Every structure is written in C-alpha cells, then in structure tokens.
Fold these 3 entries.
Entry 1:
Amino acid sequence: MTLLLKTDGITMKFGGLTAVKDLNLEINQGEIVALIGPNGAGKTTAFNMITGVYKPTEGKIHFSKKDITGLKPHLITKHGMARTFQNIRLFKELSVMDNVLIANHLHLKASYLESILHLPRYRQQKNASVKKSEFLLERLGLSQFKDEKASSLPYGLQRRLEIARALATDPKLLLLDEPAAGMNPKETDDLTHFIKEIRDEFQLTILLIEHHMSVVMGISDRIYVLDHGITIAVGNPQSIQNDQKVIEAYLGVSEDA
Ligand SMILES: Nc1ncnc2c1ncn2[C@@H]1O[C@H](COP(=O)(O)OP(=O)(O)OP(=O)(O)O)[C@@H](O)[C@H]1O
C-alpha cells in the first residue's frame, strides 16, 4: 500500500482554544477515509490545515511524499488535492459548463500572453479543456444542464457540480466536506454509490467529513473520530460503531441538545 497523506501531530490553536490537537492521519492510495465527530470537534479545521487554508500551529503534513505544511491552497491543488465545501461554493450566475471550465483553467499551462494572442498552444489547451469538462459533466450526470445557471440546479445536483469542479483539477486526493448535507434518504443512498464509483473511475483517494452515519458506515475503509479536537478512536466501521468512547461522545451531544 502507498501512503498518500500523512499528518504528523498537527495542532491548531485559535487564541486560547485548541481546535485540533495532535492529529495523526494516515491515508493510503485508493482508500476512503472518514473524519467524524460531534459539532465543533475540529473536523473542518483539520480540512483547513490539510488544504492550506490554515498553517498548523504545530506538526507537519506530507502529501505524495512531499512536505506541504504551510503551502498556499492553490499550490496544494497543483500537487493533486481538491476539496468541496460544507457550504456550496459555485459561481452561481455562471453556467454549469463555465463552472467546470474555470476549475480546469487552473491546469492550463499556456501563458497569459499565449492566451490573449490566441496562439496555437492556448487554442489546443482550450479545446482539450472543453472536451474534458464535457466528459466530466457527462460522467456526473449533468450534461443536460450544461447551459443552465449553476444556481438553478436542485441542491443535490449543485453538490455534484462541486465535485465535477474538484475533479477538473485532476486530484489524487479528494476531500469532501459533508457531501450528503441537506440530502434526502434517496439522494444520500445515491451519493454513497456515486462516491465509490468516482473513486474507482478516477483512481481517487477520498477523505470525507460526514454526519450521515449510513454514508460513513457504507463507504469508509477507516474512520477517525474527533471529539473536542482530540482523536478518540480510529478503526473500521464495525469497530467504531462498537467503541464505547465514540458512543459516549455522541450520546453526550444528544443529551446536551
Ligand atoms: N477561525 C476560527 N477562529 C476561532 N475559532 C475557530 C475558528 N474555526 C473554528 N474555530 C473553533 O474551533 C472548534 C472546531 O471547529 P470546527 O469548525 O473545526 O468543528 P467541526 O467538527 O467542523 O464542526 P461542525 O460539525 O459543526 O462543522 C470550534 O470550537 C470552533 O468554534
């Protein structure tokens, strides 16, 4: 097995609050790994450290054997990491197709001068980019909406479009922040199959944050459980479901709620 992502004791402090403490994730190529935990456990903060939004207060992050600690998000994307957000971030006024084209643009190698002069290399890349975007939309079941405004899509399809945008940057590792949020049971079930399909088809490794336990238990090879920033359990779905500390962390939350 090839190790793709490794975090060595990453910690994030906001003033006096330690949002994540000493997190040690190890994700192998091809795995689907979930990060779960009650609200405020530190899951999004962990994503933000891995993707370069925050520089960890302590610790190191290695991705594809390179130290990426403290690199800016766009450079981390170039190394092969892409993410979606808890709150969908699309260019709402642009078409579905343009949303994917813009994401793909990051990968075009033609220079600015070549692009304004419409030189051959730019034209070739643009054509390839359109083909690739069409392929992604086709593959994600969005072709029929390609000329629609992104904001006109139903919620579940907007989430798919976010994933299409992430895939347009050719990631090795895809981070999904609550992909099933706001979905009904049928959409949630479809999403579970869909995530496995894209993992296989695009040879992805996936790290996801998710509150829907049916999704987490249905697709994860391994699960990390955070509570108040601390990793309280790591294991396969079965061991996590039976872990006393995990049960208590979740029961504690429902009692408080
Ligand atoms: N930029 C920030 N500044 C200060 N505190 C923050 C910041 N970001 C997160 N926190 C705090 O860090 C803790 C962890 O938050 P985080 O959003 O990572 O949790 P989470 O597990 O993703 O929660 P949820 O499931 O509700 O999204 C919380 O107490 C939160 O208030």
Entry 2:
Amino acid sequence: MAPYAKELRVASLAVQRATLLTQRVFHEKVKGTELKSDKSPVTIGDYGAQALIIAAIRHNFPDDAIVGEEDSSSLQDNTDIRSQVWNAIKSTRLSSESAEKELGGSIKNEQAMLAAISAGSSTGGSKGRFWALDPIDGTKGFLRGGQYAVCLALIVDGEIEVGVLGCPNLPVDDQASFSADISDAEGHQRGVLFAAVRGHGATSQALSDDDLKQPKAIQMKSPPSLADATFCESVEADHSSHGDQAAIANKLGITKPSVRMDSQSKYGSIARGAGDIYLRLPVSQSYEEKIWDHAAGVLIVAEAGGIITDIKGKKHDFTQGRTLKKNKGVVAAAKNLHADVLKAVQEVLDAKQ
Ligand SMILES: Nc1ncnc2c1ncn2[C@@H]1O[C@H](COP(=O)(O)OS(=O)(=O)O)[C@@H](OP(=O)(O)O)[C@H]1O
Ligand SMILES: [Mg+2]
Ligand SMILES: [Mg+2]
Ligand SMILES: [Mg+2]
C-alpha cells in the first residue's frame, strides 16, 4: 500500500464533508459571524467545518494531535451561535453511506461538537504526528462569495507528509482560465479537491465525486520566460504587500496583471499550472504566519514540481509550534523561475532598507 494511504483517504473525505457544510452555510445565508480578538471574522462555517474534520480524524487516528485555527471558547456561552453550528453539523452527511461510516458517522451531540472543536488546541512542534487544520482559509473570501479553501495537512517529525485542499469555488477543470472571479468560471463545473503525499506527486479531482477515486496528476507549468508569467497574491492588502509585489513583478518584466485570490486556492492554482508564481511579502514585521495557512498548499506545490521558500530563500519550518516564527513571507514559483524571482524579492526589499 502507498505510504499514508489511509491518512490521505480520511483527510480527503473529511475535507469533502466539511465543504458540504461550508457551501450550505453560504447558500442558506446563515448569519452568525463574530469577530475574534484580532478583529478577523469567524463564522458558523469555520466552527462547523473544524468540528466535522476533527471528529473524523479522532475516529480514525485517536492518538494524533491537531493544530486547528479555531477554539470553542466563544461558543460556550453564546447559545445562539452554538445551536446554529449544531444545526449545520447535524444535517451534513456524505451521500456515500460507506464513506460516511469511514469518517465515524455523525457527531453525537452538542457537547461532543464542542469537544471536537476544542481538540484543535495542540501546540504542534518538532516531534511525532499532528494535523494542521484551517477549516475555512480566506474567511473574508468565503463571506463575499469569493475563493476560500478547507485545508488539512499531516505533519510528522516536522515534515509535511499529506496535504489536502478543498476549494469549492475554483473550477474543476485544471485548464480553465486563471481568475478569482466566480462569474468567470461560468459554464465550468466548480469545486476541486487538491491532494499530495510527500514523494508521490500532487493531484486534483472534482469535489462532487462521491467516492473521490478519480485523482488526476497535476504539474506546475514552466513558462518559457518570466515576461510570460502570471503571479497571484492575497486580496487583503494587510495580509501581504501589494506594493512590494508589484515592484518585484515590474523588475521581472511581468506585464500581466496579478490575480488576487483569497486563501490557499493560490497554492492549488499554481500547482495545476493555472498561474506561475505566488508572492506573499510581509506587511508587518511582527506578524507570524500560521502553519495552517500554508502546510497543505506548500506540499501540493512542491509535489507538483514547484519551489517554495520564504523571502530569504529558506524552507518553511513547521517545527516551531503554531506559527512559522522562523520564516517571513512566501515565494513560490516553478523550478526554472524561482531563483530569479527570489533575487528580485531581495533587491526590492534591500532597496527599502
Ligand atoms: N497580518 C496578516 N498577515 C498575513 N496573513 C494574515 C494576517 N492576518 C491574517 N492573516 C491570514 O491570512 C489568511 C487569509 O489568507 P490570504 O491572505 O491568502 O487571503 S486573503 O486574500 O487575505 O483573504 C487568514 O486565514 P483565515 O483566518 O483562515 O481566513 C489569516 O490567517
Ligand atoms: Mg481566521
Ligand atoms: Mg487561514
Ligand atoms: Mg481560517
């Protein structure tokens, strides 16, 4: 059996099930967005997806630790939000009975739901197995009907071994034009699941496939020259520096406008050759990137043949706890472009000193 086959299967089904919940929450316009202490939003969708995914992991891998973005503290006394999360969870099941059974079936009650959400509190680290979980990455994108991703990765002794990204609003077709705009995907079936196991390549397949047994290999594209390259970046200007990124693109002779897209959809998109470069230059010196915002995407891009480093050219270090405190930013590109892109990043940053 291929390494981590069970982990890949459980992670893929768990992410698929969570996207059923997030899509339902979006389409039914379930209200109940809160602001966290850092003023970032958290929704019924974030809590519900975290509970469903953790329940599936604990059923299959009871000894594994989980580093999840959300915690249940604000649900303990907010009964209104809590019951909305519970209603969303109760009515979410995979259509395949056997797949639902593989995940351990439904969560038993509200207490079990709160316990599952709270089980994402591991501090991670350099030893043993843990899962990094972002139940909705790009929550702002999710709220505005843009791109978002349900992200899950398994890290073993500091190495990312398995990565899965569910992107309900990206086209299934790997050849579809690269755009964050959902209306551009009209005529295209939407909802794609990206996955990778270290050393075994990266794949994509339709999220709607009941049994998820149709993965197709994906590959980064290598454009003949930098001038032909397309780069992508965050939508939110406080998450990465649009100004520095524009200066880098300019230096590289890139003429096409950037594609602004929320979430790890950026990693999935470049991994399948829809774009060529992802730049995430820090805005603030103090912000530490979170491991769940990168783990799955970094493995998927690497396994599709790309190179991903921080702005200094260092590999991201997932052994440092819940954040990537030893790294700043992200520079991801096809193998033949990465060295030139990194050089331009450093020239732009040095010129600011
Ligand atoms: N200051 C700052 N700098 C860098 N990154 C930050 C910052 N603040 C938040 N975040 C994290 O960004 C996650 C969203 O990812 P993106 O930036 O790729 O998408 S977006 O366009 O901004 O939505 C977002 O993930 P979610 O909270 O899961 O949506 C945040 O964890
Ligand atoms: Mg968040
Ligand atoms: Mg995130
Ligand atoms: Mg999130």
Entry 3:
Amino acid sequence: MAARNPVRESRPQFWQVAKRCCQLAATVDVAFFFLFHLLGSPILAWVNVVSVAMYVVAYRALGKKQNGLAITLIWAEVIIHAGLGVVLIGWESGFHYYLLMFIPALFVSMRLRGAIAALAGLWGYYVALYLLMWFIEPLQPIAPGPLLGVYLFNLSVVFAMFSYLSFFYVTMVTSANRKLRRMATTDPLTGLFNRRHMTCLVEKELARFRRNGHPVAFLVLDIDHFKAINDQYGHETGDRVLEDVAGIIKTRLRTQDLIARWGGEEFLAVLPDTGIQSGQASAERVREALLTHDWLAPNGERIDLTISAGVSEFRAEDDLNSAINRADRALYRSKELGRNRVELEVVQEVALQS
Ligand SMILES: Nc1nc2c(ncn2[C@@H]2O[C@H](COP(=O)(O)OP(=O)(O)OP(=O)(O)O)[C@@H](O)[C@H]2O)c(=O)[nH]1
C-alpha cells in the first residue's frame, strides 16, 4: 500500500517520528489506564488498553512500511479516544487537544487534496464535539480537582508533542536545505565543487582580484591515460582513483584555494594571492604527491598514476575563459611533451611583452 504512495515513501523521517509518537502515546495511555481507574472512570481506563494495543500494531506496521495501516490505526485511536474522553468526562478534560495534533501531520503524510479533505473532516468533528457538549452533560463526570489535573496533564502532553513535531520539522527542513545546497554545488563522487558552482565562486574571486590587483593562479590538472585505468581495472576502481586524487589535491593546496572537478578526469584549482611561479610550485607539489602515492588495484596490482598540469595567471584584461584557456594550452603541451609534468602558459605573456 505504502509503495504505491510516493508522498509517503518520500518522507521517511516523518514515519520515524510517527513511530516515536506511537511509543510516547502508548506510554501516556498506560498512565491513563491507572489514572482513570483511580478516578473511578472504568470505561476510559479500559479504552486505554485498546489504545495501547492499537499503537503497538501501528508501530509494528510502520516497521514493516505498512504506513497506510499505521496511519489509519493512529487516526482511529485518537478520534475515538478524544471523543470518548470529552463525552465521558467533559470538554474541560482537554482530550480534544489531541485532535489538533493531526493538523501538521496531515500535510506531511498526505497529498494536498487529501490533506485538505481530512482537515475539513477533522474540523467538522472537533466542532461537532464542542457543540454536543453544549447540549449534553458528561456521561461519567469526575470531581473538579481531578478534572483540572487531567486537563493540565493533557495540555502538557499536547504541548510536548507539538514541540517535538515542530523541532522535527525544523530539523528536517534545515537538513533538506543543506542537502540541496550540497547537491547543487558539489560533485557527488569527489565532493569537490562542481563546474557551475566553481564558475560562480571564481567570478567572485576575480572581481576581488580586479579591485585589489592581487595575483590569481589557475591550475588545470588532468590524470594521464585514465581511460587505460578504467579499461584495465574497471570503472569502480576508476571512480575510487578519482576520489583519492581529489582528496590528495585538496590536502596539497591551501584551504582558501578553490578546487573543482572540471571534467571527467580533469580538475581546476584557482589559487588566490598566488603568482604563476607559486602556482607552478603548487602544481608540482600535487603532481609529486600523486606520483609517490601507492595506487593499488583491488587485485593488488600497482597502478601507475601520473597527472599533467597547465598553469596560468589571471591578467587584468582576462575573463574566466581566457585564463582557463591559457592553462588548458599549457596542459596540452604537458601531454605532448610526454605527460607527468607541469607546464606554464608563457607564450602569450612573451607575445604581449614583445
Ligand atoms: N571511472 C570513471 N571514469 C570517468 C569518469 N568521467 C570520465 N571518465 C573516463 O575518463 C576517461 C578519459 O579518457 P581520455 O579523455 O581519453 O583521457 P585519458 O585516457 O586520461 O588520456 P590523456 O588525458 O590524453 O592522458 C574516459 O574513458 C572516461 O570514460 C568518472 O566519473 N568515473
């Protein structure tokens, strides 16, 4: 049943909270069982035994992902229990507050149209109960003192449950936002910035560069013969290599450096406050770290992994693309000159100077 309902399947945290609520509600009902015996209201006392049984079944149903059955049981329990509580000992018992707990839960557990229909039904039931108690006296009234105690107890439980639900909603929304932001800005495999986000970040960095004139170095790093690694050891090993390469690049550069997965096996690093010579030194550091790392395939074979890199420095007349293009040209030269090396884009600079 649950598998056919994408709304229910898409909010697993809600169903975790529903399980907790079942535990909490069952505990409260056990307390009520003894309380109403003491207060001389046996019907309400025994209602709690049925309630606990319903919560146990609902809890187990949630565990088996039978969410439809669970929500039906929880609904039935609260509606009957709240109704009986009000009819037997009066509106002043505060049992009706439990009905209000459904309002936020409805919107999380149902599609909008269903939630609105259920909300209208809930409102009708709540109002009908209220009006009924205008015309009839409670069927099993209890003394004013205990009635006040029951009211305060119910009010406190509803306060606690609302707080818990509100805390849950805020936590869920915050974590969903964080996840969305991460998905929108990072590459899932390596955890580095993705190309789109990197472009935004670098544009900001370059605006800063234009203001204060500090140098910015661009490093384009590309794994050599990566296709052969994939072909020989499989795509999964290729993925693991990419993750590890990203990790090593990160550790070898500074925290303020911006690093992205720019293409399949190509990485872009933008180093603020770094001239072309320092950029070259950083690229060399990365290249050596990757060269000396022990790259082992799952079968224990050693993988020979090297990278080639091209380095350029941002110039006042550049835009993002022209600076990257120069680093790319240097990278091509590294590949042409035999790979496993770092080249600078000096051609254009010489041309401009002459
Ligand atoms: N495992 C894995 N492979 C990828 C991924 N993205 C791109 N590739 C592979 O990277 C390889 C890149 O191959 P090429 O562009 O020929 O480059 P190369 O083999 O590294 O050769 P050179 O760059 O010339 O040294 C291709 O086989 C892609 O399938 C990825 O996310 N995971």
